[in-house]
């Protein structure tokens, strides 16, 4: 058993009572089938001798009992086995989601969203094959093998060994052959299905750009090629499954022939009657029902192993931040102090930021400016506890953030990120993500501060307007204002804004910036931006270039200095003058 499957089996063991009950019910179902076939054979063979009806009464009743009981037990077995499996999958999906949340930032940087979605949905669903098609039938087959041995042993060890050898061949050898033949195809199926999922998600999300750039047909051809490869892998997997099932059927037929061949001489010698041999042959044939499904189940161990490996890759991903076992509460007021912060992204040889220091408290906003790629968003991510600093100290309320619960730190911060995810739903739903308990008046006040309310009231649905998947019904400026409204509605003591006016027109930008500076009187406000023309004169400005602070000071002072900030200011003023012209 491969290591991913072994880990999966340990998780399944938590539901062992239900799985054992399902196996007993499966064995009971087969046992009743065995009884039905054996009794029917005895009944038909005995009836051929034209006995009185009284001699057949018990057999007739047993046939009815076995027939009705078999259907009832099959229903109960399906009910219990699927209940146990669905409970397991439900807990596993929650476990996977809880495991990837702490590593979400690093996963989003290294994995495609479609691939993560495929692991959470497709791969988890694939795991139901192990308990339903392998574990429960295998346990049931062991019980049926014991029952068959008990029934045949009184009639001879030879017939018993022949029947058990056939069961072993059909239930173990042939499934292993099928598993070996189809392992690669099953693994390829899982991986190609994930690639297909990723390509489809990319295509749906980027369909406008694909059409605009004239690359839609190229993407269709790529999806078509993936579909062809997936179909080929599935065909090879189906062929391996058919091979295993055919070999298992052959083993069953040979076992029945062997039992019959070993039994016939005993009939001639008087050790067995024809009626008994008929019943024994049919009992042996019926017992193989317990193992005939195992080849296809074991053949899919390759897919199960591949899916389990992909899931455990997510759950084993190291968290982006470490949650302390005994976290320290975040003190009030949550003044933020950064000292010589340094961070290097995994796989990079160059530090994203080096030696960044500042103090964040109400009354004096901190603005970090610089060109794209200078490290502004990295500082924001460190503030939001999305990743651990590589060096230096980051304190909140005088306490090292590493000693605090990351969720509690984030609860004290309101943020409008540069890339804000909008959920499928209404505008109201997306606003209330920031604070579900907010009243309508508070929601309207936050939207008004973000200069969004006057836009919303012109919509027929108002705040209940459906904004589409990822907010595609909104313009770039409306998305930006919605993100700001969320941050204002959060009403946290620390306000962090990353490029808050990047998609706003000049008039709206001026009003929003004024609102931000007003908020900084009561909130510790941190703004990352490359727009320097409207920074409040009293704000502390950190000029970041290539990850290092090259200038710092009050905005009013830096405007008069002949430094990098002044160069940025002059260039942006010139660009604004051209735009106005």
Question: What is the strand and helix layout of this fold?
Answer:
Elements: H1 3-12, H2 16-47, H3 57-100, H4 104-110, H5 113-126, H6 129-152, H7 157-205, H8 207-212, H9 216-269, H10 274-287, H11 294-299, H12 301-315, E1 336-343, E2 353-360, E3 366-369, H13 376-383, E4 391-396, E5 399-400, H14 406-411, E6 413-416, H15 427-431, H16 440-449, H17 453-456, H18 476-490, E7 494-498, H19 506-519, E8 524-529, E9 540-545, E10 548-554, H20 555-560, H21 564-580
Parallel strand pairs: 3-8, 3-9, 6-7, 7-8
Antiparallel strand pairs: 1-2, 1-4, 4-5, 9-10
Please tell me about this protein's structure.
This protein is of the alpha/beta class. It has 3 domains: 3-315, ABC transporter transmembrane region fold; 327-411 and 524-581, P-loop containing nucleotide triphosphate hydrolases (Rossmann fold), CATH 3.40.50.300; 413-491, Rossmann fold (3-Layer(aba) Sandwich). It is built from 21 helices and 10 strands. It has a 6-stranded mixed sheet with strand order 6-7-8-3-9-10, with helices on both faces. Strand 4 (391-396) and strand 5 (399-400) form a beta hairpin. The longest helix is centred in the middle third of the chain and has 54 residues, at 216-269. The mean pLDDT is 85.
The overall pLDDT average reads 85
Structural domains: how many: 3
Count of helix runs: 21
Main sheet characteristics: 6 strands, mixed
Strand-pairing-aware structural class: alpha/beta
Distance between the amino and carboxyl termini: 73 Å
As laid out across the biggest beta sheet, the strand order is: 6-7-8-3-9-10
Proportion of residues in helical segments: 55-70%
CATH architecture of the largest domain: Up-down Bundle
Q: What proportion of the residues form beta strands (DSSP E)?
A: 5-15%
In the CATH hierarchy, what is the class of the largest domain? Mainly Alpha
Look at the structure and name the CATH superfamily of the largest domain: ABC transporter type 1, transmembrane domain
Radius of gyration: 35 Å
Low-confidence stretches: none
Give the overall silhouette: elongated
And the CATH topology of the largest domain?
ABC transporter transmembrane region fold
Kindly state the number of beta strands. 10
